[in-house]
Structure formats: C-alpha cells, structure tokens
Write a structure and sequence with these properties.
With 658 residues, this protein is α/β, with parallel strands linked by helices. The chain contains 18 helices and 27 strands. Helix 7 links the parallel strand 8 and strand 9. The structure holds zinc ion (2 copies).
C-alpha cells in the first residue's frame, strides 16, 4: 500500500510543523485527527510532501471529505504565522469556529449558487447620495485587483451608504463581501442598515454570539448562501469561494488588534488577504490611523474623501477649557455646567464623555495616605457606589468597602477623582427634572440593555448622556448639541506613544456625534495642558491637520509609523526572572541592526499576580525587523538555558500598548 506524507499544523505552542503519513490522499486544508504525545489532537494538513526519512506517525482519522480552507487561505495563514512569529497551528486554530476545533465533529460543505433575482430586488436604496458620495462610489467600484483604498469621510458624511452601493455592485457580479467592524455588539447601526438593504443575504459574526450561531453563519458564508458578512476580527478569515471586496470600517480602531494570545491585527490580515486574492479593500474612517495616512502619502494606498456631512450642517466648534486653578464639581468646570444648563434650556441634548467607569478611580485614607490597591495587580481599586464594591478594572476582583482605614484604623476614608457613576449622581442633583442616561460597561451588561438605552436617548429630545468611549462609536444622536470631554489629559501625558493618536481620534469621533440636526454644536474640552501642541491642532476640528502635525513629530523622533516595532513580553510571578530572561534574549538579537530598549516594566506591570516586562525592538525596515524576530524566535525555542522556560514569553509585532 502506498504511503503519503503530509505536513500538519497542530494547535500547540510550538513553533514548528509536524509530519505524519496516511494511505489516503488528503487535500491540504483538510482537518485530521493525529496522535500528539499521548493525546489526540486536531490538525490541519498544510501540504503534501515527498517521502521523508524521519519516522512519522499515521494520521488517525481524516475528519472532513473536503478541505475547510483553500490553498490561498492556507497561504494567508502562513504569512500571518511568519509576520507575527506565532505558531501556525495556533494561527489556524484561532480562525476555526469552536465547533470545528474538536476532533469529533465532521464538516459538511454545501455549495449554493447565488440568486440574482434576490439581489435585484434589493436595488432600491433608502437614501439618495450627494455628489461626493456618488463620486466615491464610482471611484471605488472602478477599482480592479488589489488596491487598498482609504475612504476618509468626516463623521456624518454617510460612509455606510457608500459601502452599501459597493456591496451591491459585488452582489450583482455574484461575488461576496466581507465587512469588518470593530465592535458590532456596541454599534448595531452598521449591521441594521446593511441588513435593511440586503436582508437574508447578510450574516453577522462576532464573539457575543453562541458558538453554534457563529458556526451556522460561517457555513452559510462559505457555501455562498450568505453573501455579506459583517464581523469583528475573528471574521477576517472566514472562507469565501468568491470574495470580491473587503471593507474595514473604522480602520483606526484599536480593537482590530488582538491583545492576548495570537496578537494579530485583523485590519492587516484583511489587507494581506485582499492582496493575495487580488481584490480591492476599502479602509473607512473619519480619523484614519497614522499608518494608513503614511501609506497614502507614499502612494501605496489610494484615497477618496467625503468632506461634507450628509445633513449639510456645520461641524461642531471646539473650545478648550483651562481647568488649572478651577474648582471642579465631580470633574466638571463651572463653565461646562453652565453650558449644559443652556443646552437643556433649549431642549437639546448634552453629552459628557469620560473614559472612567465606576464612581471614583481611587479610594484613599486622608489621614495616612493609604490607598486601596488590588491584591494581585499594581492597580488602584475603583470605587463603585451602586455595587458598593471596590473593583479592580484589570482583573475584575471585587472587595467590600471598608468603613475604617485598614492601615491606621481612622474613619477618614474618601474617594478621589471622577467616574461615570459619580457624574450621573451629581448631574441628577444639579438637574433633577432631566432624564440622564449613562452608557458604560456596567450599565449595558444585560442583553438588549444597550438597544433600550439607545432608543430611549433617541426618543427624547432633551437630556444628558454620560458615557465612556462606548458612546462614541458610530452612534447618531440627532438632538445632541453639546459635548463635554472631561478627562482627556491622560492621552496627553501617557507613556504609550499611541495614546495621543487615540486621544485625537476619540475627540474627533465624540464631536462627530453632535450637531447633526442643527449645526451649532460645541465641544468643550477640559484640560490642564491648554498649550499642548496636539490639543491646539485639534481645536480646528480638522483631524488631518492634527494627524499631519503628529506625523511630523513621529518622523523627527523616529517613532512608528516611520520605524517598525515589536516587543518581547515576559510574564512570571517574579520580576527578576523576567529581567533575566529578557537580558538573556538580547544575545540573540543583532543590536547593530536595530535599537533595543529594555528590559522595562510594562505599563500594566503586574496583573493577576504576574509581573510583566518588555524588551522593545525598533528597526528601520519591516524586512529587517522580521529577520531579527525570526532569528530570536527560532533561537529561543531551541534554547537550552532554563531561564526562557521559567517565564511565559511572546512576541508582539506592531504593539499598541507597552
Ligand atoms: Zn489611614
Ligand atoms: Zn486586580
């Protein structure tokens, strides 16, 4: 009997591929069950190879009749594994629906041809486009082959309607479309608009759904029954036989980057996918990332703009409020309170944007300076009044609220700073007759609570909305005329280089929620750094001015996107072990070819009892960085020294946090 040999990717944290044999011919992309050590593991055949001299074990079971992934899709996985220096088995596994990660389930594929009649029924559109939108649609629909294009549309300029026309064009050609969105559960608008238009041809795919619901959608998209997927980052690699277009909405959003385990950017994988299968990809945003803007500047990406709001109303005006030497009431300056009061008198809505949930970020003893800290993180506990708990926002541990100081026993405990809960209480006292809506993770945990909250807001003309960044993602509040940004200074002072970029994006995005009906909206930005260059750039309300100035600073100081960066993160119960390991790792990096920084403690230096440290590698070219990392990764996995076994370590390419 003849024997065939196959390379098999297995979801284990080992940076290698494994060879098995079988007497069956297996098409790459097929799932198999193999013995690995003493256990049965799921594997994906990545390629058939010639006879080998190594002793191989047999493939136990061929699980599926047909391959799950195509050759092209396997190629993208291989690229991701090489680019992010992550084991191929884990890369593939992270894009498999949960139901297919087990060796007992069989995948049954079915192929359905698209129905042109259904598609033609959808040719009536809800809205007519303005001239800019028409121009954009024409431009985007004429793109052929791989052509990444930035759709830069100011907030309220109707990007979604442009996407819809582009999707329609693809459907007419019997092609399918992948739409990525950062957090669908938080922003139901995109989903509902696309579903209104294309009905049953649309499926959604995100982590808030049950595994079986997700699997159903996955299968339908793969078979062609569903033509449009709107999904979060895990949807980036759903197989599709006739993919014609990828749309990445809010391309700047940091939630495209997975922060744990396989640290990939779904935006970047989507771009690679479009490149490999030679199709256009649209990156949409009102506040594009600096990385994208640089690629536009270098003419590697095309760009088309929507500069006007569809309502033709003026964009909001920015005012920066100096809060040095100002007595704040729950974080609000008197001028801000006055502005809220005026807005309410005009029967309009005001929004307070604050990126801190809970009542107060610190709980302290005013006698001995004791501060409530988490037992297992280096993070102060946040006082939650409604839950009557002190909660760690890093590990979610909750503690009772002491009445006396655990350190000096005095009853002089108080809180410091402001969170969403406190603002809600204060504003209720200040404006007792006004309806106040708070939108943060705590107020939206129950299923459906977000939708209820949003419809309450939209059904009342006046009122106050208080919220975290959740509030700013793609929502449309027609009556909103005032935004107060309470606490943006952490964006200015943060050590994370991406924090300023994110602050600018958040301010422009939050401003974009306002003034859609009247056009006299104001954004009040409270700050102690009123002369900060970046903040002053934002005052114009023009994101591109801000971005260009920030890019100049980045170029002068050799920061991304002008250099390429990766971090090696080490975690263990002992800080010293991390430092020793990272110092040991340095010998595998040719320091003449890059800049090495560290080991340094991570900004979240201790989480759940584990200390975190980083070694930062900066290189002038992507290729050079990748070579250095490949050598490091290879050397560390072969390393005989025990020190690298004592810590959990991982490589983070293009990190957002340190
Ligand atoms: Zn005390
Ligand atoms: Zn904690």
């Amino acid at each position: 009997m003849s024997k065939f040999f196959y390379n098999v990717a297995i979801a284990v944290p080992l940076r290698q591929i494994f060879t098995y044999h079988s007497n069956q011919q297996i098409i790459p992309g097929t799932r198999v069950a193999v013995k690995f050590g003493r256990t049965n593991k799921l594997g994906i055949v990545t390629e058939a190879i010639n006879e080998t001299n190594i002793k191989t074990k047999p493939i136990h079971i061929v699980l599926d009749d047909l391959p799950i992934f195509s050759k092209t899709e396997l190629k993208i996985f291989q690229w991701a594994s090489d680019y992010y220096l992550h084991p191929i088995g884990e890369v593939i596994n992270s894009f498999l629906p949960t139901n297919l990660r087990q060796t007992k389930n069989t995948f049954e594929a079915e192929t359905i041809e698209g129905n042109k009649e259904i598609i033609e029924q959808n040719s009536e559109f809800e809205t007519t486009l303005n001239s800019e939108q028409i121009k954009a649609v024409k431009f985007l629909n004429e793109l052929k082959g791989f052509m990444p294009t930035l759709l830069h549309g100011v907030t309220g300029s109707g990007k979604t309607e442009v996407y819809i026309r582009c999707i329609y064009e693809q459907l007419l050609n019997n092609k399918s479309v992948l739409v990525l969105a950062p957090e669908i559960a938080l922003t139901p608008q995109l989903e509902s608009r696309v579903k209104d238009q294309f009905g049953d041809l649309v499926g959604v795919y995100h982590s808030k759904m049950t595994p079986s619901a997700r699997y159903k959608t996955w299968k339908k998209f793969r078979s062609g029954e569903i033509k449009v997927i709107i999904g979060t980052r895990s949807a980036a690699m759903i197989p599709a036989p006739k993919l014609g277009l990828i749309v990445v909405d809010e391309e700047h959003d940091s939630s495209y980057k997975q922060q744990e385990g396989f640290k990939f950017s779904a935006r970047d994988i989507a771009i690679k996918r479009a490149q490999i299968i030679k199709i256009p990809i649209i990156l949409g945003s009102a506040t594009p990332s600096l990385r994208t803007l640089k690629l536009v500047e270098e003419k590697k990406f095309k760009t088309i703009s929507l500069t006007k709001r569809v309502t033709q109303k003026n964009p909001p005006k920015f005012t920066i409020l100096d809060i040095n030497d100002v007595q704040l009431v729950s974080g609000l300056a008197p001028q801000a309170i006055e502005a809220i009061s005026q807005t309410l008198k005009q029967k309009k809505q005001a929004m307070i944007f604050i990126n801190r949930r809970g009542f107060a970020p610190q709980f302290i003893c005013s006698y001995c300076d004791w501060k409530a800290m988490c037992n297992s993180c280096d993070s102060s506990l946040v006082f939650h009044h409604q839950a009557a708990r002190l909660i760690c926002h890093r590990c979610d541990s909750a503690f009772g609220v002491p009445t006396h100081c655990p350190n000096c026993s005095k009853a002089q405990l108080s809180f410091l700073g402001t969170g969403t809960e406190q603002l809600e209480e204060t504003l209720k006292e200040l404006f007792p007759k006004i309806s106040i809506h708070r939108m943060d993770r705590d107020s939206t945990t129950k299923a459906g609570s977000l939708e209820t909250l949003l419809s309450e807001i939209n059904n009342s003309d006046t009122g106050i909305l208080i919220g975290t960044q959740m509030l700013i993602k793609g929502h449309d509040f027609p009556n909103l005329e005032l935004v107060v940004a309470v606490d943006i200074d952490q964006g200015i002072t943060s050590l994370n280089s991406s924090a300023v970029e994110e602050m600018g994006q958040q301010l422009i995005q939050v401003a974009g929620r306002a003034g859609r009906s009247y056009g006299n909206a104001t954004v009040l930005v409270q700050s102690r750094y009123v002369n900060d260059q970046n903040l002053l750039q934002l005052k114009s309300g023009n994101y591109l001015n801000f971005a260009k100035s920030l890019m100049k600073q980045r170029q002068l100081t050799n920061q991304p996107p002008y250099i390429f960066e990766a971090s090696i993160k080490a975690s263990s119960p002992k800080a010293q072990t991390n430092i020793e390991m990272l110092n040991h790792a340095k010998q595998f990096i040719d320091s003449s070819k890059c800049l090495l920084i560290g080991p340094i403690p991570a900004i979240q230096s201790k989480v759940r009892g584990s200390y975190n440290h980083h070694l930062l590698i900066q290189a002038n070219t992507r290729t050079r960085l990748n070579k250095l990392l490949a050598h490091l990764s290879h050397s560390l996995s072969k390393d005989k020294n025990n020190i690298s076994k004592k810590v959990r370590w991982g490589i983070n390419v293009d990190p957002l946090e340190f």
